[in-house]
Amino acid sequence: MDTNINTFEQLYDICLSLNKKIYEIAQEKMAQEADTTVEQVRAFANRSLFAMKEAIDSGMQSKELSLSGMCGQDCYKMHRRYEKESAMFGDLFQNIVMYALATSEENIRMGTIVACPTAGSCGILPSVLIAVSRKYNYSEKDQLDALITAGEIGRIISVKVALAGAVAGCQAECGVASAMSAAALCQLRGGTVSQILNASALALKNLLGLSCDPVAGLVEVPCVKRNPFLAVHSVTAVELALSGVESKIPIDEVVDAMAQTGALMSPMLKESSKAGLATTKTGLAIKNRVFGN
Ligand code: SF4
């Protein structure tokens, strides 16, 4: 197999010509490049899946604050409320939001998480993948198929744009995580290759221009709470794509637009903490409290 797949158009064509799903192409490609077997690739992915579940389960039990004291108890607060009353949109919504917070809070406590694609965006994909899998009893095979699909989406985006807030803003971190989450969920729900790519495009294009302005230069505010928001965002993209709604702009062009937007974005809004939320009155007061003047 030609392993030179650098665009979604190439991925789509190869899936179509070989009548294979994205995860099948991705795992074969990875095995070929690493001179190993598909089973080994899946075993490696399974370790990530396991770590994602561990981060959720451990984050759900903790209310320990981060060293800065800014974050760490949001999942606990939601958990406490849901013991008394359910979320308006039901238990699946409830779990997606809590799992995303649980994972992100594990990250700010320096716990073990899976960067997907980055640590700041680590709660988005696992929350959706695992909450939906637990709700509908998807097998481990189904979950791995979904995870490998998501990985291929992130990989191809990263060919054109470095997945870092310092390079292209949060669209390249939480935005890409949401696109990966949409791909995983769409695969899990039986979407076609075209629907998976549309779901990713829909998620990503509605997050273009998202700035990176973390308070006190720490990956906490707005990062932690941004994860549950964009997890739910990815579910919306999948509901649209599975209904046949298409992104008018193909995903390759959405990625081009993201790269261009990132290049045009002021460095003040790319992880420098020199503008936006970081330099609000409260943001600066927090910085002074944490680091002093
Ligand atoms: S705001 Fe910046 S630091 Fe926080 S998750 Fe987004 S890209 Fe990462």
Largest sheet: none
* Tally of individual domains: 1
Bound molecules: iron/sulfur cluster
Which word captures the global form? globular
What does the model show?
There is one protein chain. By secondary structure, this protein is an all-alpha fold. It has one domain: 2-methylcitrate dehydratase PrpD, CATH 1.10.4100. 64% of the residues lie in helices and 0% in strands. The longest helix has 24 residues. The mean pLDDT is 97. The chain binds iron/sulfur cluster. The site of iron/sulfur cluster has 13 residues, from loops.
Provide keyphrases for this structure.
293 residues; mainly alpha; 2-methylcitrate dehydratase PrpD; 0% strand; globular; binds iron/sulfur cluster
List the helices and strands and how they pair.
Layout: H1 8-18, H2 22-33, H3 38-61, H4 74-84, H5 90-108, H6 124-136, H7 140-160, H8 165-168, H9 174-188, H10 193-205, H11 223-242, H12 251-264, H13 281-291
Helix pairs in contact: 2-3, 2-7, 3-5, 3-7, 4-5, 5-6, 5-11, 6-7, 6-9, 6-11, 7-9, 9-10, 9-11, 10-11, 10-12
Bound molecules: iron/sulfur cluster.
Short description:
The chain has 293 residues and is mainly α. The protein has helices spanning 8-18, 22-33, 38-61, 74-84, 90-108, 124-136, 140-160, 165-168, 174-188, 193-205, 223-242, 251-264, 281-291.
